[in-house]
Amino acid sequence: DIVLTQSPGTLSLSPGERATLSCRASQSVDSKYLTWYQQKPGQAPRLLIYGASSRPTGIPDRFSGSGSGTDFTLTINTLEPEDFAVYYCHHYVIAPFTFGPGTKVEIK
Amino acid sequence: EVQLLESGGGLVQPGGSLRLSCAASGFTFNNYAMNWVRQAPGKGLEWVSTISGTGDSRYYADSVKGRFTISRDKSKNTVSLQMNSLRTEDTAIYYCAQTNESISPVDYFYYGLDVWGQGTSVTVSS
After folding, report:
1. Is the dihedral of CA A40, A46, A52, A58 positive or negative?
2. Which of A45, A51, A98 shows the shortest C-beta gap to B116?
3. pLDDT in tens, B57-100
4. Residue B50 is nearest to which of A44, A88, A95, comparing CB atoms?
5. For labelling, which of A19, A41, A96, B123 has a CA lying 20 to 30 Å from the CA of B39?
6. Contact A99/B113, CB-based, under 8 Å?
C-alpha cells in the first residue's frame, strides 16, 4: 500500500504569508494521480490541485503544486483569511487510494 | 449543475446494517467512477471504496473489506454503500465523490475527485 505522510501537522501563519505544505509517499507516485484538497470545518473537501500541479477552473492562482516521485508540495502564496483550513494530499495510483493525514493551516 | 446528494445515514447498533445512497445529477453518470470517503469525528479523510463507471471494478479499504459493498444503479443515477457488521469505529460522516476522468481506447486522464456531496452522518453506538 502507498502511505502518504504530510508535514507539518500544523502550520501557524499570518495572512499575507506564504504556506509550504509537504506530502511524501512511501513509494514513487505517478504525478498524474496526486491531488490536493482543502477542507474547512463543517464542509466537504474541495479539489485544489490535480496532476500534482494543475488547478481546476475557479481555484485561485495563489495555490500551486509541484513535485514528483515521492515528494510533493502545495504552496499557498499570500495567505488570504479564507485559506485557513486543513489540506490533504491523495493518490489514485492503485487501491487503496489513501489520503495523507492532513496539514492544518491556522492563523498565528 | 453537477450535484451529489447522499442519504441513508443514521444511528445503528454495533453489528447492524445501513445502506447509504448517493444521487447524482448534472453529468453523464455512467462515464465516471464514484467513491465513498469518510471522516470520523475530529479525524482526517479516509478513502472507503471506489466503483468504476461500468461497475465492473470495485475497490475497498482493508478496514471495510468483507463488510461493505459498493454498487451503482445506472437507471437511477445512484451509487450505494451497503454497510454490514458495523463497528463503533465506522462512526463518521460519509461523503460521496465523483472521479473526474477521461477514458479513451488509447489513454486515460485523471482530474481528481472534483465533485463531493454534503455528506451523511453514520453513528454506530449501543
Report:
1. negative
2. A45
3. 999 999 999 999 999 999 999 999 999 999 999 999 999 999 99
4. A95
5. A19
6. no
